[in-house]
Structures
1.
Amino acid sequence: MKKKYNVAVVGATGAVGTKMIEMLEETSLPLNQVKLLASKRSAGKEVTFKGETLVIEELVPESFTGVDLALFSAGGSISKQYAPEAVKRGAVVVDNTSHYRMDPEVPLVVPEVNPHALKRHKGIIANPNCSTIQMMVALEPIRQAYGLDRLIVSTYQAVSGAGIHAMEELKSQALAYIDGKPAEQLTAEILPSGGDKKHYPIAFNALPQIDVFAEADYTYEEWKMINETKKIMEDDSIKVVATCVRIPVLSGHSESIYIEVKEAGSDVSKIKELIANAPGAVLQDDPSQQLYPQALTSIDRKETFVGRIRQDIDIDKGYHMWVVSDNLLKGAAWNSVQIAETLHEMDLVRV
């Protein structure tokens, strides 16, 4: 009989950490103990887990003694400092931050797409960017069948991707604006990026900036999608470009994706069939019934929803689609727990 695992959640009080706890309540992982870790100011708070009361503990290196699996979602600096401490004490880390994603020694994994990469892990596995994850789930069956030459994605990302405080800021701005407060007087302290010089209101707005600007005037979020796609697909030749936009939606990321396939023989019906049969994907595509994926109906769902699949008018091998997923679940917490489950299934947890 396989050992039951001691699992730690780092960042247990955050938007993603809270969802990780929910996903662990439903997991197929054989659990012995769940340990909740957060900052000193959150220590002592209580959380209900499977009918029991768990007390959040302060994160220190010794927290990982006896831990088999550690799920991190507390910011890159925390992962940089504490993930090696967890590994040193025998834990396998699944990190939801961007810190390790492009490290060549660290697998970047979407279980439906590249579970084989887990075999190369040296104690740390990176969870991709939320927007990258749902795109990979939608595109992998097409890539397997016809190859992918080019990919252009425009995202419409929910504010929950920026954390609990961004969600609260959206709510307060919306109420103030409806109450008659002018847009220029709305309090904005977080978006488009907490680390940048200026902040703008998100309520009734669309901000074409997620994270700070970087090389060639693309934001770090856009570069994440570009570079992570190539790493996950193990293909540096694929042409990828992204435009990432924050919109006033609480949860559920949406994406407009244009692809060009390599091989001949594709058509819309075949693309739809591939999506319908793909693990983790749900086809919602019936224009006659106005059926297509929506952010609101993706909330609290683990799947990635795909619709509006159309052939490009001018490019024979070009296709357009609309892809939606709950960014806190498949885009973060569920993908992390799913990686842990896959490590268990592949007998890759060092216990």
Note: The CA atoms of residues 119 and 347 lie 10 Å apart.
2.
Amino acid sequence: MHCGKPLPEGSRRDRAYCDNKCRGLGSYYRRKAGVPPRPRWQHPALTSDNPVLRSAAAHARQLGEANGWSPSLARCAMDGLTVVLGECPPGKPVKLTEVRVRIPRHASSLRVAEVLTDLELLEDDSVLAVRSWIENRTAELPAGFASDVRAWLLVLLNGDSRAKPRSHTCVYVYFGGVRPLLENWATTRGHLREITVTDVTAVLSPLRGWQRRNAIAALRSLFRFAKKRGLIFANPTARLKTEDIQRNLLPMTDAEVLAVQRVAVTPAQRLIVALAAVHAARATAIRRLTLDDLDLSNRRITIAGHAQRLGELPHQTLLVWLAQRRVTWPKTPNRHVLINAKTALGTGLSVPNTSNGICCTRASTSNASAATVSCTKH
């Protein structure tokens, strides 16, 4: 040892750890004696006898270099690949549920699945969360209504030969509007075919506003599906019409303005509020906004396919956010304007942060700059 540091008393180590000075002296004497440097450590998967594992590990390293993965993240991805491909026959795809169950806790199933997807070695056998939700919620309904409502929700989700699939939000809203009505009918009725026009009018009479409008839309969809499938003899909602609801714009009070200032504390949150308030941008349009939609030199922005002049407030908040984005994720391949720690490693859309997110409700007018925004913390 070059430092001559004595061993601590009672220590179980057979030598003391050297500092950087001792490490440098050791490298100097090795070069002086002609001893070649020790080879750098590399993951065992890169030199594995399994050609599939070896190619997957090499692809993970290339993907990490292209997407700005940290060395530890790339190493953990190779650990997960070693577990799922170590005993897998060559050419056989790996199931996604197996990836989520078998990989070590420190490995990221999302990154392992991304590597396997690029190599066409992943079989997605997972069940959508909305499907599990449909099964669990319809199982709580009365027996005479459960099977028909389940079939209706699945058609809304997947679509059929004459109808396009609906969004998950539509499925949730429709079932939320229909469920209390079905539970009310279950006390005197046992099947959808027993529901009459009088029953529909009775359950809708206490509802007002958007609650009544959503309930009517859900009931019309349900009974239209039941009539098409031959589950009922007559559609009790055939002549049911929805009422137009007057949309009123209410100015924000001083307390609401102060609440927005307290909630929107990060540059990303301030940018969301600015885009919604000045440009009347919807949440989906803000999430899908890419760097190609920005023309900062000419003060132009394209939102949902519509080019418009960039306002002063969005311009300033956009510059602050882009500066932070450039410093935080300098090598990210994601072209979306709003990204986070997870989506910066890929190219997908960012998701709302439910722990400290902002929910903005926009009411637009003929003048986009006069839009009002109401923001509340989740």
Note: Residues 290 and 336 are 4 Å apart (CA to CA).
3.
Amino acid sequence: MVALPSSPHEPTRRTDREKLFRDAPLLWRVLMRVDRAVVGLTGRLEVTGDVPDSVRGRPLLLAANHIGNLDALVLIAACRTRQLAPRFLATGGLFDTPVLGKVLRACRHVRADRGKSTAGEALGRVVSALTSDHHPVLMYPEGRITLEPDMWPERGKTGVARMVLASGATVVPISQWGAHEAMCYGTVRVEGFGDLWILFASWLWAIRRRPKLKVHFGAPVDLSDLSADRVGDAARARDRIMRAIAAGMVPLRAGELGAPRHFDATRPATGKPSPWRP
């Protein structure tokens, strides 16, 4: 029996992923490589789970919990191991800075204005970004670093759910743990060199300790029975997404499901107890 050669028009899983990844802006791919080196210096990256090939190249939103100042870098490095080049939903102020703003636009990240009359435009921007570009959008449903006493996800906002329902995108939950050990919370507002030094010094200490930086890609959240037009469905979608993120955190923080072992004296634990805590 002779095996027939595969057709060149039938790309393998690997070449499909590589093609999608290489289609991302060159500058963003270069920055992702630099990011991986920084994360490798900071700690030990451990990535589990994956994003199914069946949802790649289609409207896709990645929803992650927010635990620290460096967790965005960890998420970028984790995505790179899965050949994903996500676009972040970033605050509008970053786009207004002279250099960083140009970089963000060149990398096709998505702007979101908070607390302004244009805030509602973020929904339209994300829906457009999801449907016009095959690279996923990554965002934090909580909207800030969690201040929940034991660092479980906060309640979260319905913005992610409304974007997903309006675009028909698939949402993949991402759970992470350990990035909070790579840099302290610091101050709410950086007002001088001393505030920056606190952050930098904590990062140098992390380089010596090399904490485990754990990221898990969960299974897509089933929202097929929900609608953008039905009252209450955005909250229901938000609840399912947040529960999926919290459930994925359980194996990542085994042995510290209560108070985290790592204590950060600069972090104000002023949030309400998480409704998603298992």
Note: The two ends are 54 Å apart (CA to CA).
